Amino acid sequence: MSVLTIIAFPLLIIFIAIVAVSLFLHFVPLGLWISAMAAGVSVGIVNLIGMRLRRVVPTKIILPLIKANKAGLDVNVNQLEAHYLAGGDVDRVVDALIAAHRATMSLTFERACAIDLAGRDVLEAVQMSVNPKVIETPFISAVAQNGIELKVRARVTVRANIERLVGGAGEATVIARVGEGIVTSVGSATDHSQVLENPDKISKTVLNKGLDAGTAFEILSIDIADVDVGRNIGARLQTDQAEADKRIAQAKAEERRAMAVAREQEMQAYTQEMQAKVVEAQAEVPLAMAQALKEGNLGVMDYYNMSNVISDTKMRNAVAKAGLPPAATITTTPAQPPTDPSIEPQK
What we know:
This is Flotillin-like protein FloA. Helices cover 62% and strands 11% of the residues.
């Protein structure tokens, strides 16, 4: 054997040993097993290897199990591993159980897992049950019966209700219900000064409505933090209504004016039509007179007399239009009878 072979063979043995030890320590977390045994938690090597095969990180199971065991909780490895495989946060659940145990709250492991799997922070819920949380609402606009707007901001002190955390409504629902109660309370006041004098009436009215029903919280108190006077909504509505009434009246007046104009145009057309008929009738008068003279129904003297009357009427109309003095004399020429050879003068 050569020198190179003699040197390479031990190195190969060492490399294989290192790889084997690494694989063994990967599948068998020996340090974690020693920590569990030192903490008094009974966990077998086979269980740790099984966790690796089930793609469960042993650290996320053993360390919370050690905390639970030290806190005096009755939790086993299978429960924690099942919750981990379901997608839950094992460490958060154990911390919540420890906090509830220290606060003498009744919280079971199954309830804590259900709250965690529902998407809620179970540890925060336990802390909120011990230390209530204050929810501050935004400015809520409400209008009293006299039309004055009030802007109210409230602080709602709530405590988490562990029994209703699964399926219960959240903070947004509580804020919405409180806002609804504030609007109702202010709207029932006949004058906004009543609300300004006694803002505690809003708190009492809202609390008596039982707004925490169906929510994940229990409302402890509602305190009015600020009340500001806003706009005069009633006057603005009356102004808008008056403006709308004015526009309606203007529209109706415009409609009547248009109808009057149309009626005037119709009457003008009717007048022109009547004038045309008068002109047509006047054009037939000479023909009728000629026919009467021809048939002997009208004498020459009658015609002259009628012509004189017509001329006198025209003269009077001309005097009236020109404004001539009464002393002025206007001579008129007697009208000549119509010349028709077939008509003989009447004797």
